[in-house]
Amino acid sequence: MREINVSEITKTIRQLCMDAAYHLPKDIYEGLKKGRETEESPVGRIVLDQLIENAEIADKEDRPYCQDTGMTMVFLKVGQDVHFVGGDLTEAVNAGVAAGYIEGYLRKSVVGEPLFNRKNTQDNTPAIIYTDIVPGDKVDIQVELKGFGSENKSGVAMLVPADGVAGVKNAVLEIVKKAGPNPCPPIVLGVGIGGTMDQAAVLSKKALLRDISTPHKDADYAKLEEEILEMVNKTGIGPQLGGTTTCLGVNIEWGPTHIAGLPVAVTIMCHAARHAHVEL
After folding, report:
1. Which phi and psi (to 5°) does residue 201 adopt?
2. Which positions carry the signal peptide feature in this UniProt record (predicted)?
């Protein structure tokens, strides 16, 4: 049994929030540069030049890459041989988020109640926390900052098995086309297939944590990722103002589902595809 004081969780998440806000992941940065090389639209190339320059300034000066520093999502893989001491794990996570957003001068965007009051909590808490129990004595922490210009354009399609691969492709494409330029493309797509409606959505969020240059380990899903990416980049939506670089990458995660179902969730992430990772 390994003991971890929850103060370590707070300290780690504080830093992860700032790192994710300031430093665009290498795969996304390289994706923007690759898109710049292949972009056919002159205006699209200008937009991509600006996004690349913005990423470089944010990285160098430790400034937020985007003014919408998102709602904080925390993915924990907790080893079953870990025992947390010193306090409540959920409270420790939220304390880390609060510290990161306050001390890092990140925009606080969370309201405590969604409909009638909508009062800002002033520290970007509570975070959305997903916890998986896994073998071992490590704690894997991934923080994802989810902006809502893109989140508002995400969607779920409840298909039936007869819809098959073609149905999945069409569902993803329709969600992307309906979103248009509103999610601040070039986008990254996380696609969750299977499970229930809610699990498919979580899978789509987890898919965004994978490096976009790393294809799915299953050949069939890797091929589907490539095919969807090609379809989306043919829409002409492009980087903000039209072009051929609508999407930088498509990541799929799947789960078992019911014999009568084929849920498909699509989480759209804007070009500020921010996340950070640490293992304790």
Report:
1. -65, -40
2. none
CA 128 to chain centre: 12
**CA-CA distance, 94 to 106, in Å (whole number)?**
15
Q: How far apart are CA 272 and CA 69, in angstroms?
A: 9
Mean predicted lDDT score pLDDT of the chain:
97
Domains in the chain, CATH or no CATH each: 2-21+65-146 (3.30.360), 148-273 (3.30.1330)
Residue 240, pLDDT > 90, answer no
Q: What do you get for the CA distance between the two ends of the chain, in Å? A: 14
Instruction: Spell 95-118 as b/e; 16+ CB within 10 A means b.
Output: bbbbbbbeebebebbbeeeeeeee
- pLDDT tops 90 at residue 191: yes
Span 132-143, mean pLDDT? 98
Look up the pTM and report it. 0.95
- Cα–Cα distance for residue pair 238/180, rounded to 1 Å: 9
> What are the residues whose beta carbons fall under 8 Å from the beta carbon of 245, sequence distance 6 or more?
35, 36, 38, 39, 44, 48, 185, 186, 233, 238, 239
Q: CA–CA separation, 194 vs 200, rounded Å?
A: 6
Residue pair 106/124 in contact (Cβ under 8 Å)? The answer is yes
What is the rounded distance in angstroms from the CA atom of residue 107 to the CA atom of residue 124?
8
